[in-house]
Design goal:
Blueprint (H helix, E strand, L loop, with lengths): L2 H15 L1 H4 L1 H24 L7 H15 L2 H9 L1 H18 L3 H32 L3 H16 L17 H16 L5 H7 L9 H10 L50 H4 L5 E2 L9 E2 L8 H4 L11 H9 L1 H8 L11 H4 L3 H11 L1
Antiparallel strand pairs: 1-2
Helix pairs in contact: 1-9, 3-7, 3-9, 3-11, 4-17, 5-6, 6-11, 7-8, 7-9, 7-10, 14-17
The protein binds zinc ion (2 copies).
The site of one zinc ion has 6 residues, from loops.
Length: 360
């Protein structure tokens, strides 16, 4: 075989016989990306403080970031659609980790690419050796090659028959073609500083943020009927009561004093210790003593709200900082019986954030 023929044959093999019929390109790519997604998610859980604990720890970071941003709209999503906010937060953190040619992400991606390359190359070399020894043909080569990669790449070997590659006899050339093709298939730059950003999110069958969302968000999302705080139980549909160590001021959820326009500043944990009553349904005059809140209906019955005075400064700061926004949102006022105590106004944003770390 002349060298000219080898080149021509090489091109034909590249384009038709191997890669397309084996769908090797897509298999290599998918296998690199899905391994990378898991490894990157794992590494982010150890590198990033927001991800290296349970969901309560993540929520603390979410609250810190909400306070830093001071964006009422984002607070609203967190309060009324917490799961949506958690998901957006996780996705943003992941994007940020993957964005700036982070050396930690680069190391993971390079390790995986090197490993996959090695697997494919040694499969090609093994197939060449065996076929040469047995004097087999290209179909035998393809079969051996893809069988040894089956576990590694989840290759489907069923479409191997009838490839019409019997005339190919230069198996060393096949190995060379495969080596060359791996880089082309992955389509990643040679320059290290560009690899992380070239790693395209849309190529992940399951992205690292989706893996982390699954990890953190499969838990109880039931919210306190008074203050909207999210149950901290890590099991969705768990037995027993919903509970949370820290509740919020109930005016944040729109609770107000009957027959007034006054939003309430009370915390549910303080209310349940009082001798007062509340009206669970706006269209009914029936009141329920706070101490018997569980009798108010199904959404109250399964909550364990223990009386205490653990009023987190974070929510006092929040009410003061977003007083006007809350008043506008509910068309009510913090006035009269719902006057914001002067003591609340002395909390700074820094105090608010600090209180998360001190108590939660
Ligand atoms: Zn509550
Ligand atoms: Zn729960």
């Amino acid at each position: 075989m002349s060298s000219v023929n080898v080149v021509v044959l090489g091109d034909n093999i590249t384009n038709n016989a191997i890669l397309q019929k084996l769908k090797l390109g897509e298999s290599i790519k998918q296998s690199v990306y899905s391994w990378a997604a898991n490894e990157l998610a794992e590494q982010m859980r150890s590198d990033l403080p927001a991800f290296n604990g349970n969901r309560s720890n993540l929520e603390k970071h979410i609250l810190k970031s909400l306070a830093e941003e001071e964006d009422f709209e984002r607070f609203k999503t967190y309060i009324f659609n917490p799961r949506d906010h958690f998901e957006v937060f996780i996705t943003d953190v992941v994007k940020n980790y993957m964005k700036k040619d982070n050396p930690r992400a680069l190391a993971v991606i390079k390790k995986i690419i090197a490993h996959k390359k090695q697997c494919v190359i040694s499969a090609a070399e093994t197939a060449s050796k065996m076929v040469t020894k047995k004097k087999g043909d290209a179909n035998m080569w393809l079969e051996k090659f893809s069988t040894s990669l089956k576990d590694e790449l989840e290759c489907n070997t069923d479409h191997l028959s009838g490839n019409n590659c019997e005339d190919i006899t230069d198996f060393q050339l096949l190995t060379e073609v495969v080596k060359k093709e791996i880089d082309l298939v992955l389509d990643l730059p040679n320059n290290d500083s560009k690899i992380v950003s070239a790693f395209k999110m849309e190529h992940f069958r399951k992205r690292p943020d989706e893996i982390l969302i699954e990890h953190f968000c499969q838990c109880c999302w039931v919210q306190c009927p008074f203050c909207k705080a999210i149950c901290t139980n890590t099991l969705e549909g768990h037995p027993g009561d919903h509970s949370i160590p820290f509740h919020r001021s109930i005016g944040i959820n729109g609770w107000f004093y009957r027959r007034t326009e006054n939003l309430s500043t009370d915390f549910c944990t303080t209310c349940v210790a009082s001798d007062r009553s509340f009206y669970p349904y706006s269209d009914s005059e029936q009141s329920v003593p706070w101490k018997e809140y569980r009798t108010a209906g199904p959404k109250y019955a399964n909550w364990s709200i223990t009386p205490d005075f653990s009023e987190l400064p974070y929510w006092k700061w929040f009410v003061c900082r977003f007083q006007k926004d809350l008043e506008k949102h509910y068309h009510k006022k913090y006035q009269g019986s719902g006057e914001i105590p002067d003591e609340w106004r002395k909390y700074t944003k820094k105090d608010a954030i600090k209180s998360l770390y001190k108590y939660i």
